[in-house]
Protein 1
Amino acid sequence: MTLILWLVLSSRALADGLPDLGDVSQAAINPMQERQIGQQSMMQIRASRQFSDDAEISDYLNRLGNKLVSFSNEPSLNFEFFALNDYNINAFALPGGFIGVNAGLLLTTQSESELASVLGHEIAHVTQHHLARMVSAQRGDTLASMAALAVAILAARSNAQASQAALASAQAHAAQKQLDFTRIHEQEADRIGFDILQKAGFNTHAMPEFLERLQRATRLLEGGAPNYLRTHPVTSDRIADIENRVNRQPYRLLPDSLDFQLVRTKLVGAQKTTRDAIGYFEDALSAHRHGNPIAQQYGLVSALLRNKEHERAKEALAALLKQVKNTPSAQNNAMISTLTGQVMRATNDPDTLAFYSTAVQKFPQHRTLIYDYADLLLQGSHAELAVKLLGEQITLHPSDTTLYNLQAHGYSLMNRPLEQHQAQAYSYAWQGNLFAAIEQLEMAKRAGGDFYQLSTIESDLRELREMLSAQAKKQ
């Protein structure tokens, strides 16, 4: 099966005419249809400015999320967790196991257990098929329009002002109201999310603590409740029910993982200008403010690097590595190794290539490290090695558009235009830019190739055109 065929598997079903989801005889959405709705929604989300392409943040969310999923009642269900560059406090689930987390929520949670409690709640919405039940209740819509509606609801939940533009028609606005979670759904997600949190070994007291803090903050906000409270209505009865469950459990004071602290540090730095970020982390370190000093030093190195103060970044990195050496729990951290490599590249350290070669073997799944190493190889006339490395990663992360873009660059350096345009087409396709994907595949076909390559391209073109046709019918 080609990557394009995998991507647009749902488009063929749509072209063949799936039954209306509102039809009484077809009231339930099966798991494959759920995944199709979620996948089509994600294509549009990946193309939006809000989607975060920071692989370190995404990979952290997926490690934490999949740990929780393993303790759910559907541990084999395929989940994908992703971040949005949105500083509103919100998290949401889409059909098929896609769970989004706003940067604002990551910064608002004060412990990893609080973040885990939110993810556990969203996982429960998926495993209990709440979204599928609500979507299937809509009348006269096919999967394609349901996917578009899911994205519209995402826009509405992230930005109240955008809701009128995203949900332009009265029918869509009414459907959006029907898709809001009910009190029963929330109570069920609380109960199951609590069980997941407990089985995964997190502090269950974090669940009511997070909700109560949001409620207290609401009273201080002129604009009303955070998006999370509007889309996940919290009542006194709901909090009381959670507290009743929690009070039966001992309070567990668990240390946060270093990755949790580093991810939050990255987001804090990203909110500020480079100069402000440097000042912020310098002040935090000099005043010994509350927080993780390793994470604060990491933030300072990152900010100096962003500001192109490479020698100062090198000095700050030396201080960071000294701290790490004296902290066993911080050793062998992939994010710190990645930052080390970035400073070495910026300062033209002669051992950079050897460092990356060793680091990639040590952390073979750390995508940001892979990106940097592949880019370094491409700059150093090692395109064939880079392409091989990228191909292995694409097998593991078939929707990662950065991998395809790097791969296309590698094939260009190797003077292999067919593969270059094919890789670029996959990047466009996963972002939902079907016109550009088709254009790239046409260029690949004109470049010439063997029978198998050309057959694959023809198959991909056919699938993409069918998908484009199905989308056009809904406009």
Note: Residues 257-349 form one domain.
Protein 2
Amino acid sequence: MSAIENYHAHVYYDADTRAAALALCEAAGKTFGIKVGRMHDNPVGPHPRGSCQLTIGLGEFDKVIPWLVLNRNGLTVFTHAQTGHALKDHTDHVIWLGPSETLKLSAFR
């Protein structure tokens, strides 16, 4: 296994939960100083629906993940390690907060 560089947490949303997802991502960025990506209102790459990506450094993981557990307000958050092996990072090195969803793994082929 390769070393973990960082983690990505993808906050999934639909049109009716977009505002809640935006508020969660902005609060995470402000609270922990982590990078907040843009809101993707449509599926991108392997993600089955709209999402916003949070980049979590190794030093913040133990603070950010528990915070997301307590503050996700019913949103699904797909978290994965970044090791440089994209397929494994999205299948073997994952943590789901909320119900898991089916990823479009063909994006890696």
Note: The mean pLDDT is 96.
Protein 3
Amino acid sequence: MFKKTLKGEKGFTLIELLVVVAIIGILVAIAIPQFANYKKQANDSAAESDVRNLALAMESYYASNNIYTTGTTELSNAGFKATKNVTTTPALANATAATFTITGSHSNGTKTFTWNSGAGGLQ
């Protein structure tokens, strides 16, 4: 009816396995919210980086043509490549603009970044 254990037979008890599973569950419950925060920070960093890169492309275009542009083709030719899920919007102060602004954000981020060339850069 009952199996006799042999000398030296090793294994884990059910209680030991349940304790390990409970500890892993607690660690996962702590780690998942932290991971979500890290992803949001990474998305915000991508948006900030795109705003800076777009400003650099606009300055590069200006150096070659003596005028700023908001055209995607011109800015792409000047070296700007948008990151997936990041929206950037360049705007000129007026038709003969000597300054420009850029706003950018990530669809899964928490911040919106603004670049104002007349006020010295990232705001």
Note: The chain has one domain: 17-122.
Protein 4
Amino acid sequence: MQNKILYLTVMSLMLASCDSEQLYDEYRSIDGGWDKNDVVEFKITPPDTVNPYNLFINLRNTSDYRYSNLFLIVEMNHPNGKVKKDTLEYKMTNPDGSFMGSGFTDIKENKLWYKEAEIFTESGEYIINIGQAMRENGQVNGIQVLEGIIDVGLRIERPNTTN
């Protein structure tokens, strides 16, 4: 498992170095399962306040992930104190039960849309918090510790204007 993680990390770094659209790409490791009370925090300072940017949530999951979808609560804290909070749902498996995402091992990497053509209208530092909001069908309380998610990331890109 250690070799697979090292290989994936090296490959990600190599691919990122060839990516001219990328402005920000950071990951945080999740050790021992993602507790419902733990948020993953990213602090970003956008390059300007006029151009649009695409934001993605990147996830790495293993075969220990038992669900076909994923619910996240994502909170964007603006420099002026304004907070935008979104509840997001993503499909994680194909209809046949196989995991979506890329990867040749039991680790799959998913690039999930968060915001399209977002303009950061204020200069300064933004804080983006990502938490899991999974629950079993028919249960009121959320899943305390979500197994199978090993890394959570945030990526910011310039929109592709060559379409």
Note: The chain has one helix and ten strands.
